[in-house]
Design goal:
Low-confidence stretches: none
Strand content: under 5%
Distance between the termini: 44 Å
Helix content: over 70%
Structural class: mainly alpha
CATH superfamily: CDP-alcohol phosphotransferase transmembrane (TM) domain
Radius of gyration: 20 Å
Order of helices and strands: HHHHHHHHHHH
Number of strands: 0
Number of domains: 1
CATH class: Mainly Alpha
Shape: globular
CATH topology: Four Helix Bundle (Hemerythrin (Met), subunit A)
CATH architecture: Up-down Bundle
Length: 250
């Protein structure tokens, strides 16, 4: 017997998740729990939900390549559903106590697919409209930048494990490393972080599809993502890596 929605929230939602991520609590958490409730009445596993989300992502990305208004709207809704399932699989895993490293690995693959594949589909869709190789260049820049940003962030953990924990390099915790506190710096950093979260990408893709110009999402991120990549690399080199190491060394 599956508990009520109210009880399911207590069981499956992480403590303080709504405080740490209020936008997710307002939108996705309030919807995902109903899908979780339905799936818990079946034998479907968390990993199967993850794979279902991956299949939906592939279908959505393929639909973007048609560049028609109807296909773009359907693709946007499917992409929203795929992202919603990214929450549902975790809720099912926590309810059934079936969380695993393999599940987390599969979940990350599904998430990266959601970030990358839609831009490939949008590139082909934009090409049918403009018939110019420039759109593929924008698609490549978007996909490359997304991939490289993730790589840069993951390299911090790899560096910490390979060089600090294995003591190949002696790391002295640095004191006094603080991020700049100026209002302008914090505002820019906040805007950049918001714009390059997948939720923002999803909203922008949906909005541009709604007004009939889905390729604008490709143009925006194809130009903006490389700048975000450069900023991220500079930040990590300047102080981000040291801040990260200090947090892990506590």
């Amino acid at each position: 017997m599956v508990e009520s929605i109210k009880e399911l929230k207590k069981i499956t939602h992480k403590p303080n998740a709504e405080i740490n991520d209020p936008s997710s609590a307002i939108i996705f958490r309030r919807i995902s729990i109903y899908f979780t409730f339905l799936f818990l009445h079946t034998s479907i596993t968390a990993n199967q939900v993850t794979m279902l989300g991956m299949i939906i992502t592939i279908i959505a990305s393929f639909l973007f390549s048609f560049s028609t208004y109807e296909a773009s709207i359907i693709a946007s809704f499917l992409l929203f559903l795929a992202y919603l399932f990214d929450w549902v699989d975790g809720e099912i895993a926590r309810y059934r106590k079936s969380s695993s490293l393999n599940g987390a690995y599969l979940d990350d693959i599904g998430y990266y697919m959601m970030e990358i594949l839609p831009f490939i589909g949008l590139s082909f869709g934009a090409y049918t409209i403009f018939n110019h190789i420039f759109v593929f260049i924008l698609g490549f820049l978007a996909v490359f930048s997304i991939t490289f940003v993730r790589l840069v962030n993951l390299m911090r953990y790899s560096f910490y494990f390979e060089y600090v924990l294995k003591k190949k390099v002696k790391y002295n915790k640095k004191k006094g490393i603080k991020e700049r506190k100026s209002f302008l710096f914090k505002s820019i950093k906040k805007i950049v972080n918001i714009l390059f979260q997948f939720r923002a990408i999803l909203v922008i893709i949906f909005f541009t599809s709604l007004i009939g110009y889905s390729y604008l999402a490709l143009f925006f991120y194809g130009i903006a993502f490389p700048f975000f990549l450069i900023i991220n690399v500079i930040y990590q080199f300047h102080s981000g890596l040291d801040n990260f190491m200090n947090r892990l060394s506590k």
